[in-house]
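Hey team,

Filing this mostly as a record. A colleague (T.K.) asked me to run one chain through the structure pipeline before their review meeting, and I want the input and output archived in the tracker in case anyone asks later how it was produced. No errors, nothing strange. Just documentation.

Input sequence:
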Amino acid sequence: MKIAFYGSSLLSSYWNGAATYYRGLLRDLAARGYDITFYEPDAFDRQSHKDIDPPEWAKSVVYDATPEGLARVLAEARQAEIVVKASGVGVFDTELLEGIVANSRDDALRIFWDVDAAATLDEMRGDESHVLKRMLPALDMVLTYGGGPPVIDAYRGFGARACTPVYNALDPTTHHPVAPDARFASDLAFLGNRLPDREARVEDFFLSAAALTPDASFLIGGNGWETKEMAANVRHLGHVYTHEHNAFNCTPRAVLNVARDSMAHVGFSPATRVFEAAGAAACLITDEWEGIELFLKPEEEVLVARDGQDVAEQLAALTPERAKAIGQAALRRTLQENTYAHRGAQVDALWKNTLGRAPSPHSVRAGSDLGASPAPHSVRAEPVEALPFSLSEQEQEGQPFDKLRANGGGLAIGSAEQ
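Output structure:
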């Protein structure tokens, strides 16, 4: 079956936390026989910060962020049996959602895939004319990258026909233990972009812990932190590319996860970094949020902290031996229960059951040899002259920190969240 997937970026993780999530899921679905085309706009300087070349398992189409470029790629939705609009593309989010409904075939499965459900639902509650409220009756289902029962209930309350969480996971072919790298040497490391609804929690869980532990070394990676005042024992790296994440996770004594405000509030929303860290057999310290035990067991597979004081105390008591044991336990649990092969099987069964077809055999898994099939190619939509356009509040998702501030604090996408 053909999938037309309209998202932020498959090729770049630059100001695009959803990249790892998209890659893991779509790679597995391709191994199950889906023919995938991913459409991403040339926006926010992502194409000059690509992490990967166009993959063999999906056709990559980069289009100009103009009305003409948008119309050209939306017209291709007619060729697909499954049409997906992801949240937080960053440009033309309203037009994309309306467009997939207007341009898809009558028999196509129409899906909104929300990679930041907590933020989207907050917007819907505050805006009676929100585009998703208007379009929900025309959509077959909502998939979310997290949120659990609170998100399912909220979406059903807004009139969604169906809402199913498809959680972040691990792709063991891309995220796994590697040798330490001196660039990332530290006692505690945190990776995440500076976002308005995360900054206060990073100040609490990371920066205050650093101030309380002056003899320990702290490392922060991600965009936007270069202007942030930090203690002398904190080192800032800037953007860390996806291919560097394994070494980033494997080198420190422990790594830290800090959820954004909205995600911590709703719970059941493990960030991509949780599974990246587990895949690298890193010792993870996470802020406390409801549902963590569904993915990792506290004290045995993950350390849970309520605030920066807890983080400082956890770090002070953490021996290298215990850190290694926790990381190894997390890796075992994640490989058993939380890989993208597990998520791909879930999505495949859901789609096939909805369409009345038998799910693909589970023996076709992520990492299968796709070399026997013709490799999809990367194309670029025909360039057209750039036209000025403005961004609505929803379309501000996924923008760099300075633009978010200028636009009044709009939210960035919340998956991997780097």
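Quick notes for T.K.: Residues 182-337 form a domain with the Rossmann fold fold (CATH 3.40.50.2000). The chain is about 35% helix and 15% strand.
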